[in-house]
Amino acid sequence: MGIPVYSGELSRVQVNALAHSKGTAGNNVIGLTQSEVEGKVTTQIWSVDMGGGRRCQGLGRVDGHWRLKDIVVHIASEYPPGGCNYAKIRQHEDEHVAIARETFQRWAPRLQAALGEAASRERPMLGTTDPNQMKRDINERLLRALQPTVDGYKAELKSRNAAIDTTANYRLVMSRCPGW
Fold first, then answer.
1. Extents of the domains making up the chain
2. Tens digits of per-residue pLDDT, 26-57?
3. 3-class SS string, the chain
4. pLDDT by residue (tens digit) across 82-125?
5. Crossing angle, helix 84-120 and helix 167-175, to 10 degrees?
6. How far apart are CA 11 and CA 142, in angstroms?
């Protein structure tokens, strides 16, 4: 789950630009941790032909699977492995890795619960809707119902990361090595 992949391919300028493109504040970003959750919701629909082109259809089963994809940790190429600066940047970025993992572990059950709750609200429908369209409609409703939980996860992740991305914390990290 969320294996960190460390990269020293980007320069300070490139790491900074990438951070800004992702909405990260700061003018001197030298390390950046990127995490992403991959989710998939699959449904099975049952359908009974009622005659006259009408069907009674409903949600038979729903499964949700979430995983934390590999976590990409960029450390500016000006700080190669083996140096004090690299070690301290990596130590700070590893805190972000831990936050990504812990936050995902805390929210994955909430996503599953929200999916179950949304599925329980689905009721059979009588009509002429094509079963494939019915499945798409149900999937859309389930995904919409998950959005507040997804937003909550993202907000907590952002808040926890911001708590360690402070000027005071950066000064502390930089004070641990000569030659910044």
1. 36-68+81-175
2. 668 899 999 999 999 999 999 999 999 899 99
3. CCCEEEECCCCHHHHHHHHHHCCCCCCCCCEEEECCEEEEEEEEEEEEEEECCEEEEEEEEEEEEEEECCEEEEECCCCCCCCHHHHHHHHHHHHHHHHHHHHHHHHHHHHHHHHHHHHHCCCCEEECCCHHHHHHHHHHHHHHHHHHHHHHHHHHHHHHHHHHCCHHHHHHHHHCCCCC
4. 999 999 999 999 999 999 999 999 999 999 999 999 999 999 99
5. 140
6. 42
